[in-house]
Amino acid sequence: MTSTIVCYGDSLTWGFDADGEGRHRYEDRWPSVVQETLGRRAHVIAEGLNGRTTAYDDHLAAGDRNGARVLPTILATHAPIDVLVLALGSNDLKRHTGGGRAREAAWGMERLVEIARNFPYGFDYDAPEVVIVSPPALVETTDDNFDAMFGFARAESLQFAELFEALARRLGCVHVAASEICTATPTDGIHLDAENTRKLGAAIASTLGTLT
User: Fold this and answer.
1) Distances (CA, A) of 134 to 19, 42, 99
2) Which InterPro entries match (predicted)?
């Protein structure tokens, strides 16, 4: 039986390439690695959006980056879903979105889990198993724009793994800590190069392999 896995995330899920021309090759994006690894056992759907937050508005963007507002539509679109992978939090560190603290990201992630578990799926479909992926820690960069957006929050980003692990335990979710698997590129201090993106995909696939 093939499991449907929805990967709901931000630019790391989209495959933002800080060293290239916008986006990593399809095969280097972590949802693609998950699909390649699990093969026919899974149908992996990548729902990544640059700048997406867990639950906060970004009025500087053309599209809706509020993950909590968009998630119900995604759930309805792809139902039935066996596993929902929530990979968000970094963009909550912007002062004009989540306020610049990792704890806001944890609160937002809790809201996403609540939405996923209480959504009226219809047709007697069950709510999906939820996997939470905490973001990698930020690193120093010489990119002025990214440093202005995130540089002040490097210490906050070190709290992601601990906060999301505590949340996962309390809510009964599976947690994957990206900071223990991969390292952000100093090109912009937040995104992953192709090698680290594939590392993240392999780790997530290993976790999902026990759920599918």
Assistant:
1) 23, 22, 18
2) SGNH_hydro, SGNH_hydro_sf
**How many CB atoms are closer than 10 A to CB 12?**
29
Question: CA nearest 17: which of 25, 27, 9, 6?
Answer: 25
Ordered DSSP codes for 90-126: GGGGSTTTT-S-HHHHHHHHHHHHHHHHH----TTPP
Domain enclosing residue 107, as ranges: 3-209
Spatial distance between the Cα atoms of 132 and 106, rounded to a whole number of angstroms: 10
Instruction: Report the SS3 class of residue 40.
Output: helix
Rounded to 10°, the helix 194-209/30-38 angle is 40
| Contact status, residue 98 vs residue 54, Cβ threshold 8 Å | yes
Contact 11, 191 (CB under 8 A): yes
What's the one-letter identity of residue 157? S
Q: What is the CATH number of the domain that holds 115?
A: 3.40.50.1110
Confidence of residue 98 (pLDDT cuts 50, 70, 90): confident
Q: What is the average pLDDT across 28-48?
A: 97
What predicted TM-score, i.e. pTM, was given to this entire model?
0.97
Total domain count, the chain: 1
